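Lab channel / #folding
Pinned by the channel admin:
"Please post every new chain as: sequence first, then the structure tokens as a reply. Keep commentary short and put observations after the output so the thread stays searchable."

First post following the new format, from NK:
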Amino acid sequence: MTAAPETGRAPHVLVVDDDPSIRRALERGLRLAGYHVTLAADGTRALELIASGPRFDPEPASPPQVVVLDVAMPGVSGIEVCAELRARGTETPVLMLSARDETADRIAGLESGADDYLVKPFDLRELDLRLRALLRRRPPGPPGEPVLRVGPVALDVGAHIATCAGVQLELTRREFALLEVFVRNPGLVLTRDRLLDRVWGYDFDVRTDVVDTFVSYLRRKLEADGRPRVLHTVRGVGFVLRTAGGAP
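Reply from TO:
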């Protein structure tokens, strides 16, 4: 595994999984990669640890910078943990872990506000790469930035408000970031690799359908209530934001 990002101290990751063997394996692998690791066996404990911040673990002297969260756990599920974090306004990046046959749970996890997911079993090296990408994610746009408009779509980046045909869209942070890239590049076909780099920060080769998954969620919200399609698929190439009359 590659070394964790240089931040002056070890990046702090919270690993939440009800399977002891998985927790042990992740702790060992991530520590070897240079992370400070805190473990939680269930969702309730994870919420307690995140809420208590540096008081629960003096070594990192900071709350977790990224969370690795199993989707399906007894009691408070990973989906509920992520939804609660976003409801509290917590912006900590969340990477979901899901079993191969839990497609519905994986979708629900992303809709609850997760930033990415990995399907079990996975390579620890890929987990490390994805965590590093989440840790160096791009900051939000500056306050007071002009509202961006393409056809019926308007984006107030500073206020984090998106509308389509005057209707405000309820977007997760990652969906908003994806829409922002399209709005800043109207009429330009964006490849999956470019979107992975711009939205997720992946500057490495990764096999994932996360782009297609998020585009489908975003398209569903843009087209709700019978609104016309503005986010189009260019088969074999990527996706483009284009209005009926052409992008301005």
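NK: The helical segments are 20-32, 43-52, 78-87, 103-111, 124-135, 173-184, 192-200, 210-222.
TO: also worth noting, The chain has two domains: 12-135, 148-241.
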